[in-house]
Amino acid sequence: MGAGSSTEAEREPLLVPSYVETNTNPVNSRVYGRRWLVLTLFSLLALMQGMVWNFWGPIQNSAAHAYGFTKSDIAILVLWGPAGFLPWLLFMWLMDKKGLRASLLLSTLFMVLGAALRSIPLTGQPLRRWLIHGGQLLNGLAGPTMMSAGPYLSTTWFAPDQRATATAVASLFSYLGGAASFIVGPLIVPAPNDTQALTTISAAVSDIFIRDRIQLVMYAELAAIAVLFGAVLLYFPARPPMPPSVAAASQRLSYRSSICRLLSNLRFLMIALAYAVPTGVIAGWSGVLDMVLTPAKVSQVDAGWIGFWSTVGGCVFGVAMARFADSIRGMLKLILVLMLAGASLASTWFTLTCLSSYTHLPSTSAILYTSCILVGIFINSSVPIFFELFIETVYPVPEGITCGVVTFLGNLVTGLLLFFLTFYCKGMLKT
After folding, report:
1. What CATH number does the domain located at 31-190+199-430 have?
2. Above 50 in pLDDT, residue 21?
3. What is the pLDDT of residues 78-90, one digit of tens each?
4. By CB neighbour count within 10 A (0-12 exposed, 13-18 middle, 19+ buried), where does 357 fall?
5. Residue ranges per domain, the chain?
6. Which terminus, N or C, of the chain has the lesser number of Cβ atoms within 10 Å?
C-alpha cells in the first residue's frame, strides 16, 4: 500500500551462483599427440641413466680382475648415484622456474660428460679408476631429474585419465635401466676364471679380454647417451602450447612456499617415510646384489637374472596397477597397503631361507630366487602409486618439487645403506 515500484538495483539477486563467474573465463585445454614423443625421449634417458648407475654391481667379479676393484670400490661406485642427489634443490628450482627442458638438458649434459670420462682408454690403473669414479658421479647428478620429473611430465602433457600411466612409465624406466644392466653386463662381460690350473700368462690374457669387453659396453652406452642428448637438444619443449587439463593450468605455490608446505605437512612426511625406507633399501641392495648373493653360492649370471626379473616384474606390475588406478579413483591407499604387505611377507621368506641353518627351513635355488624376485616386484611396483598419492596429498605444490623431495629421501636411505656397506667390506678385508 502506497509503496513505489522497486528499482533496478533492488531487483539484483543477493546470492550469485558460483558457476556464473567461473564460466566467464573458461580454461582452454588440449592434449597433443607429440606427448608420446616427449615421454619416449625422457624414458630412454632415464633408462640409460639407470644402466650407467648399475653398471658395476652386476659385474663386480669381472671388475675386480680387470681394474683391481675391491668390494668396497664397487659399493662406492654405486654410492655415487645417491651422492648425486646432494644438489637436488638446484634441479627442482630449475624445473619449477624454467620448465622440464632446461633441467633435462643440464642432466643429459652431465650424463654425456660422465659416460665420456669413464670411457677414456688410459693404461694407468690409478688414474683410470679416478676417471671411472668421476664419470659415475657425473651420471649420479642426473638422478634428481630422471627419477623425480616423471609426475611433472605427466601432469604437464597428459590428460587426467592417462596421468597415472604416464607417471608409471616415466618413473619406472630408470629402474628398467638398472634391470637391463643385470643382463647386458654379465652376458657381454665374461666372468673371471679363478681355477688354479691357469698359468699367470693365460690369466693376464683373460683379464685383458675382460677389460676390452667392459670398454666395449661403455663405448656403446656413451654413443646411446650422445644420440639422446642430440635429440633432446633438437626437440624437447619445456611445456605444451596449451595445458592438457584445468589442473595443469592452475596456479601453483612458489618454490619457497612449496618447501615450507611440504616440511610442515605431517601426513606427507609419514607417507614419504613409508616410501623412502623400502625403496631406498631395495635400490641399494639391488646395486650390490651380486655381492650380497655370492655367499649363497649364486653366480654372477644368476644374480643378474634375479635382479632383472625382480625389477622388470616390478615395472610391469607397477604400470598395470597405475592403469587400474586411472580407471578406478580413490584406490591408491589400498593398493599401497597390499603391495607393502606382499613385500613384507616376501622379505621375511627370503630372510628365513638364507638362515636355513638356524630355522631348518628348506633352502633351494628355486625358493631363494622366487622370494628375492617377489621382494623387488612388490617394492618397485609401488613407486608410481606413491607418486600419485604424494601429488594428491600436497596439491597445489608443484609435482616436480614434491617428487624431488621424496626421491631425495629415498636416495638418502640408499646412501646410508651403501655407506655402511663400504665400511663393512673394509672390515671384512682387514680380517
Report:
1. 1.20.1250.20
2. no
3. 888 888 888 888 8
4. exposed
5. 31-190+199-430
6. N
